[in-house]
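Homework-ish question, so no full write-ups if that breaks the rules, but can someone show me the predicted structure for this set?
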Amino acid sequence: MKDIQELNLPADIRYSNDHEWAKLEGDTVKVGISDYAQDALGDIVFVELPEVGDTLGAGDEFGTLESVKAVSELYLPIGGEIVAVNSELEDSPELINQDPYGGWIIEIKPDDSGDIDKLLDREAYLELLKAE
Amino acid sequence: MRYLPHTDADIKTMFDAIGVKDFADIFSNIPENCRYDREMNLPEPKTEWELNTYMAGIRAMMEVTPDHTVLIGAGRYQHHIPSTIPALMSRSEFLTAYTPYQPEMAQGTLQGLFEYQTLTARLLGVDVANASMYDGASGLAEALLMGIRIGRKKKRVAVSGAIHPHYRAVVDTYFKPTEFEVVELPLLEDGTTDLSSLRDEDDLAAVALQSPNFFGVVEDLEAASAAIHDIDALCVACFSEPLAFGLMKSPGSCGADIVCGEGQSFGMPPSFGGPGLGMFGCRDKFVRNMPGRLVGETTDLDGKRGFVLTLSTREQHIRREKATSNICSNQGICTLTAAMYMASLGGSGLRKLARLNYDKAEYLKQGLQETGAACSFSAPTFNEFVVEFGGDFEPARKRLMEQGIVAGLALEPYYPGFKNRYLFCVTETASREIMDTVISEVAK
Amino acid sequence: MKNAPGRSGLIMDEPLLWEKGKVGRNGMSVSASDVPSAALDEQLCGAGPDFPDLSEVEIVRHYTRLSQWNFGVDTGMYPLGSCTMKYNPKINEKHAGSEAIATVHPMLDDEYCQGTLKIIYDLQNYLAEITGLDAVSVQPAAGAHGELAGMLIFEAYHQARGKKRTKILMPDTAHGTNPASAALCGYKPVPVKSGERGILDVEQIRELMDDETAGIMVTNPNTLGLFEENIREVADIVHGKGGLVYGDGANMNAVMGIVDMKKCGVDVLHLNLHKTFSTPHGGGGPGAGPVCVVEELAPYLPSPLVEFDGTAYRLEAARPESVGRMHCFHGNFGVLVRALCYILTMGAENLKKASQYAVLNASYIKVKLKDHLHLAYDRPCMHEAVFSDKKQQEFKVSTLDIAKRLMDSGYHPPTIYFPLVVPGAIMIEPTETETLEDLDTFIAVVKEIVAEAQSDPDLLRNAPQRFKVKRLDETAAARKPCLCG
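A: Not a homework solution, just the prediction itself:
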């Protein structure tokens, strides 16, 4: 398990209390899990993705990540409609371990484009990690 | 007592190490109001020799003995078991081992299970088979629950009325506390399932048939699976006599999505109904919804082939209330037994034995028809069939009992209206002589 | 390692069944036909499965070699917490396999099989006596199946009272089958955190219990190996709001003849015959999970039950309030025979001793190892003691590493990473059938391993070395499953 200093935490994205990240790209927001989360989970063996077109609220479960010995639910950091899922993860779930920020999981059209600013910035997320 | 090795000296040594003076001390934190305040009222302990005498007394209470020929199947079959099987399956490395969660010291069990999964998948014509459920009945219940999970929004399942009555009873038990409904499909005159009502259904997640069914009748699974897929439901094919697939087409090759049933015929004695073996398999795309343990092939640190329990996130010890089932213990040693039986018969032997069962059952069926009994169902059967006698068969049946033959199972208790109808099973264990005796007794 | 019984030896390789054999070989007798060949519609026929053809010798060697890669209770000590890996008596095998019992068909008329019906009847009664409860069904085929029976009984009970309850209290130490079984009946588990002392906290139960809650699922002794000292109060609170108490009897080996489950307030209890009652684990099964209930709930037990009218034994299926049938026939009957033989061999006095010695053995191990491995709860334990890898973390050695090194030493490891409330849990349950010398050797070996964790941790991280395979790539097995050959 990595120490806090070893973690890769980009400054240009937002983080949630559930260790997801969200990045605004034009109209839509890409969502994935942070380096801390992928490190804690270990080798990811399977990703359960939602259906494109589903509309979910903030905090709703949108999928799961499975490692050999555990399952982690994924919770939507902000509400919206699922416009894309990263289907590469079906055959190569290890992408999330290798590159947690390139290995995005879903893309949503947020109900409110301002919602993303309510999430934690890098500093606030670091504080959260130090407290864990 | 030979299973309790501690001497008084041992106990004293241990009391001293722990810092107690007696057992009362050790159990001192058990509240008074929880204590077993008397001696358990059980028979006096028996030495091995006394136990042997006692069990001989139990055996003497049995009116049907190993010398009887039992012409009943109905979910539990008399087949010859080669002596190699009890010899190898009683090896304590197999029998007294735990579930193979520590794979490095359990490769025997794990390779044995992988072989079982493979042979079972080939037998049933499915992509993948699990390492067993408890029996055919609970397997069917779990298959239908799996169908509901896959069907997502659908709330109903259908089961053929020609499925073993006890299997249907177990399905009802499992479904009763759920919000899902089980509907029963009626029978056609020829003994197969009437699927005509399916056309009007749109909320069925899965439809289950048994083939050969409880009456021994071979269902047309190809037509059935097509009709079932037409209404966007899953086809569940169950069975109680897997030997049939040495002769008949496998359910998977006929289009079944989930195949489940009883594997007892493959090396396990009838043993008053248990232990049995719930064989269970499905299409690849459904594997993550499948209950039960799964063994997978992998490599070790040196690149050597090895086997390991896998896809465990489906199971209760990881997924808990969201697991595909609550199953933990399965039928363990019985799966290895079945694999060893399948390997002992081999592909050639399986075909030969299945054909022998079919021919023998046909011989008795024809012989009984020649005495005037009516074959109740016109559709083809495997090693079981139903005949209806002109009058009361019970007197003849009693006479046959006295001659060491249990002639069939009366069906009226299971299907009211089936008066004088009997379900007969003939396997390779029933000689022509025995069958001729039955025929001549009926002819009287 | 100077103490360890594990050595090295010749391990024979053995391919998969279909990598051997030749078409035309056969491994068992198939009789020639004594009847004419009957007409057969070819349309129905398939080609038959692609099975290899093997000779008898090939098959016997195959399974002999496979068995030699395994480790059973007969090989060595198997201190798996919560599994009760006690000795499996051979005399029980003989009786379960005797021809007179093995050949019996389950659908014979009652009058023809009085012996086998008596076995079920007697076992029903003996298990009631041992647990202190009133009525028993031996039909469930495993512990989890017994739990399902229990949850179905809860459901039926509440339905009969006109109110469908939706929740069930679930201690965080519960075995995974508990919430899974509850979920099969539509109950939502409400987590109950264990108190500081590792047992249920009465105030929490009082707060959580309401009339939407069907009851509580309790394991007693619990999965930390501790007796739930507040069980009576907990039961009173649950009963007070119209709920029922389910007892998971997996740990019954600690309390036979010592604790009365009915007096504890338990309404429904399952037993694991393959744990407490010495039936073999078989590499994963078959087990048996009889369900025992208080008088009031007897009508709900699965059907049929065996009854005795003074002269004869009968299967009673006409039980209108029963939750129904759970197994095609009478459950794993062969397992029931073994358990009955065990009870008849032990008698009351020896069953009680078994529990006493089981607790004695675990307490002894606890006291001897507590200064070497971190003890999760420094309190009197019952038949199992829970440690953890806390002291080894600074050397970057985990519970898994300790377990694998124990394997090389000639032991099956204890239960690891369960219960979930103790991170890195190591649950040791020696059972009563281990000698004092074997316990002392085990203790000495664990101490050696603990020392190695500090002085030479790679020995642990690279273990095991002495088995047919080394550590296996479980990630690859899960990412790209290969489940069929």
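Now go work out the reasoning yourself. Hint: The mean pLDDT of chain A is 92.
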